[in-house]
Fold this protein.
Amino acid sequence: MNWIPLFVAFGLAVLAGAWANARLASRKPTWSIRRRVFTASTPLPAIVVVASAIGVGWYVMGSSENMRDLAIAVVIGVGAIFAAVTLAGGLIGAVMVEKGRER
């Protein structure tokens, strides 16, 4: 397996989490740190889950009977892996912004 897409997804998720947390800190300064961190890290994994659901629907509607179950399992598995990676990356990016803000 080529690991580069996972590394790129993780890096982009860290940047997206940091950016979203910085935006939330400037727009919602009354929110607690925990609320900002989790709110900043949630949208990207949600997008990945929706994209995976669309991919499963695409295979269910458009593919032939040959290996349909395998294709659906692969799409769900890869989607779950990418959702976990983007959630972890978003959390790390958001926490890094908060740690930098404390200094």
User: Anything to note?
Assistant: Residues 14 and 98 are 13 Å apart (CA to CA).
